[in-house]
C-alpha cells in the first residue's frame, strides 16, 4: 500500500527526464486498461483464533470499476480490504495485482513491492495529523519516504486538492475543516501516490447524508476521469445502486452475492441479501 512505499529513491534527474522520486512513487507501470482485471483473489482464507472470518474468498476487481461491498457487521468486509492493501496477510490463498502474483504460499511475493504504491486505503476515522496543515499532511510521506522534491510534492498536492475540490484549504489545519472536508483531504492524500486502486472502508459513515454524497461523488469522478478502481464498504445503498459497477454481499465470511446493482437489489434470490436490503431499505 502506498503508505509503505519503498524509501530508497533520491530526487535526482534520470535519463528519461523523470525524477527518481517520481519513478519510485509510481512503482512499476501498470498495464491493466479500463475493464481489465486489476486484482484477483482466489481461495483467500483467514481465521482469528478458531473463528474463520474469510472462507475461501474468490474476488476480482477490474480497472475503472467501483465495487461496493456490503454486509452485516463482522462478516469480513474490512478483513478483505486489509488483505488486498497488504495490512494483513491471509492464512491461505493467492492474490494477483495487474497479472502478477503478489501473495502466494502464505506470504507476499517480491512482486508486491513493485506494485504496492498503486494501492491506497482510507478509513472511517480521519487519519490526518492534527498539528500539520493540509499541505504538510499531503506532502510529508512522499517527501520523507520517496525523497520527492518540494516543488514536485507541491505541484502534486495542488492537483490532488483540485481533484477533490479542496484547493482553497491548502493551509488549513484539520481542526478547521468539517468531517466531509477532512475525508476529501484524506482522499487527496491517497491520490498523492497516483493509485490505481483505492480501498475505502466506511469513509462516509460519520457524515451527514448530503456531505457523504459529496465525498462519494469525488470517488465517482476519480473512476470516470482517472480510471481508478474503487472498492468501498458502505451502507449507502443509494450510492451503491447509482454508482457501483458491482455489488458484493458478504455473509459470514463468504461472498454470498457478486452482481450488478440491479441484480443485487432487484432480482436476488439470496435470502440473506433480501433480508439485509429490507433492513437498510433506501
Ligand atoms: N485483529 C483481529 N483480531 C481478532 N479478531 C479480529 C481481528 N480483526 C477482525 N477480527 C474479527 O473478524 C471478524 C470480521 O471482522 P471485519 O472487521 O472484517 O468485519 P466487517 O465486516 O468489516 O464488520 P463491520 O461492518 O463491523 O466493520 C469479526 O468477528 C472481528 O471481530
Ligand atoms: Mg469493517
From TrEMBL:
Annotated compartments: Cell membrane
Per UniProt, what is one GO molecular function of this protein?
ATP binding
Question: Where is this protein chiefly located?
Answer: membrane
Spell out the residue ranges making up region: Disordered: 1-21
Any Pfam family from its record, for instance, is ABC_tran
Which segments constitute the ABC transporter domain? 39-277
Q: Spell out the SUPFAM superfamilies in the cross-references.
A: P-loop containing nucleoside triphosphate hydrolases
List UniProt keywords, sorted A-Z: Amino-acid transport, ATP-binding, Cell membrane, Membrane, Nucleotide-binding, Transport
- Membrane topology summary: Peripheral membrane protein
Entry's InterPro entries? AAA+_ATPase, ABC_ATPase_HisP-typ, ABC_transporter-like_ATP-bd, ABC_transporter-like_CS, MetN_ABC_transporter-like, P-loop_NTPase
Entry annotated with the keyword Transmembrane helix? no
Q: Where is the composition biased (Polar residues)?
A: 9-20
For this chain, the family text in UniProt reads: Belongs to the ABC transporter superfamily.
How is this protein named in the record?
ATP-binding cassette domain-containing protein
